[in-house]
Design a protein that fits this description.
Length: about 150
């Protein structure tokens, strides 16, 4: 694909939805854009603020914490896979309101607890812990939340 067509197409995608460099790079590679043009397109998109990884990271963290109810660990790993700098990730994670974050974990555990049909409290606790860990919450957070939710 030629330079201008690839740039226009990438800019349109970035204008519709926040993108990070790695996502746009993957699209350009898929469109078989030459390596030299690929670098120029990415540089131009960043300069013209079609791509802003700080902005992308902030939106990603807020959306995943609020709507997907992911924990910080899962969000961090997903952003690392996208090549986002650790400092940017930590800064964005700090913007999550702790009360909302804790309430998400409590709500998830309460919902899961209602679904469980286990009689043994140890198995019920283990199941809840595995579930919360799979959602990306840390062990300390899970233990505190389980104390609030209870296992009866």
């Amino acid at each position: 694909m030629e330079f201008q067509k690839a740039y226009d197409k990438a800019a349109a995608i970035c204008a519709r939805q926040e993108q990070c460099v790695s996502m746009v790079r993957d699209k350009l590679v898929k469109w078989e854009v030459e390596e030299a043009d690929l670098a120029k397109i990415l540089k131009r998109l960043v300069e013209e603020q079609f791509i802003d990884e700080q902005r992308y990271t902030g939106f990603y963290v807020r959306d995943k914490a609020r709507f997907n109810r992911w924990g910080k660990t899962k969000i961090t790993w997903q952003l690392r896979r996208k090549g986002i700098a650790p400092e940017m990730i930590q800064e964005a994670l700090a913007s999550i309101p702790m009360e909302e974050y804790d309430n998400n974990l409590l709500d998830l555990l309460r919902q899961k607890k209602r679904q469980l049909k286990l009689d043994d409290p140890y198995k019920r606790k283990a199941s809840l812990m595995r579930f919360a860990a799979s959602r990306g919450f840390g062990l300390d957070e899970i233990i505190r939340a389980l104390d609030v939710v209870g296992l009866d």
